[in-house]
TrEMBL record:
Free-text function comment from the UniProt entry: One of the essential components for the initiation of protein synthesis. Protects formylmethionyl-tRNA from spontaneous hydrolysis and promotes its binding to the 30S ribosomal subunits. Also involved in the hydrolysis of GTP during the formation of the 70S ribosomal complex.
Annotated source species: Ancrocorticia populi
A GO MF label: translation initiation factor activity
The keyword GTP-binding is assigned to this record: yes
Listed name of the protein: Translation initiation factor IF-2
UniProt entry tagged with the keyword Cytoplasm: yes
Chain sites annotated for binding GTP: 79-86, 129-133, 183-186
Entire protein: shown range: 374 to 851 of 949
Amino acid sequence: AALITVLFRMGEMATMNQSLDEDTFKLLGAELGYDVQVMSAEDEDREILEQFDIDLDAEEAAEDDENLVARPPVVTVMGHVDHGKTKLLDAIRHARVLETEHGGITQHIGAYQVHIDYEDTDRAITFIDTPGHEAFTQMRARGADITDVAILVVAADDGVMPQTVEALNHAQSAGVKIVVAVNKIDVEGANPAKVRAQLTEYGLVAEEYGGDTMFVDISAKQRTGIDDLLEAVLYTSDAEVDPKANPDRPARGVAIEAKLDQGRGAVVTALVETGTLRVGDPLVVGAAHGRVRAMFDESGANVEEAGPSRPVQILGMSAVPSAGDSFIVASDDRTARQIADKREAAKRAATLAKRRKRVSLENLNEALKEGTVQTLNLILKGDASGSVEALESSLLEVEVSDEVQLQIIHRGVGAITQNDVNLATVDNAVIIGFNVRPAERVQELADSEGIEMKFYSVIYKAIEDVEDALKGMLKPIY
Ligand code: GDP
């Protein structure tokens, strides 16, 4: 109440559970004689680690050049939808993953490493096995810059498309070197020269045109040109990136995938950035911790240790971390657990703060009273276009008053995706699923963003809930 009074004097009509922006916070602090510093989540994490005498930036700066050795480049495949990203990752995996006693059957663990004979040496390349720039951007948003080289896939029968441009913008803004794979050259009417010409407009000029970007013609389907592409990746990496790390230190890295496996518990795919990860290491991954009980490579073989750029599946963590969470080997189990606990607490506080701002069918009434919401934004997802349309038209018939609007900002057929949740985050919307469920990942994202998802299998139930919410949403008339 005291703060609200101060805010009122400052001309800010705030209510008890309203969120303030950064500037208002600072002004409020100044008003009360405090210097307010706004901390990013990364800063906060840095502070947590410092309490345990861990300073990752200082470690990196103190790294002696003599200790650094070349490590394999980490590669992400990006490009427009249907241009062959998945096919290419499959082709590379099948052509190149080392055969092991397990029969060389590779599983999807989120990343894999291939070996290639390059200039008479055996060289490794690590591929992130989730194509597209969404995963790339999401990882970066969490502070994980793991990609050294991006392969931009462009189908020669389709040319440069919107997501091609998006992907290359993302890569370029992250300072990641690009190798262009001109795919589908087996298709009749394929025009690889046109792709080269189109991309010059975006600053990607092929070597044969006097530029410094490598273009390789491939067919992911017929698996031709794959070796040339891998060589181009190594060439670009050697010339432009020259990635290095110190294998002789406790490991640091990033979780690229994580899931809960019945029987095995939390299964985390970790990419080692520097140092060497060993079985038995006390580890903290995001807010999860534990001792590395066992490690496996992409062929399911047991691994005792993993050096820089090596992706491995690890068992033994207390919980399932999120993709993009960083991991560090701690000095002992206790420290690992304490760091994890502090992160968990920070995460919980952040989620709570976010959730307070989000709209849900249950809190609409309150949100409206506070004046933070005038519109109920909905996203509809259903199992068939017919049902989505039926739901939409029924919803649009729901009676609304002058004070409240109902808006369907997005509709679609199929499972609820991360994209839907992101959209809901931006537009403060509630997601309604009709005969569809979200993937586990999507549920996690929605939870952490505080987005409400409601699921129905009969239309009238959905209508009823929205009607009730809207009724509750009516502002009291004085
Ligand atoms: P993504 O959306 O970029 O991951 O694309 P996909 O890898 O799923 O490929 C989209 C479609 O293009 C699939 O039907 C593939 O079989 C096909 N495709 C991919 N690469 C090639 C290629 O080199 N030649 C031909 N003819 N088809 C391809």
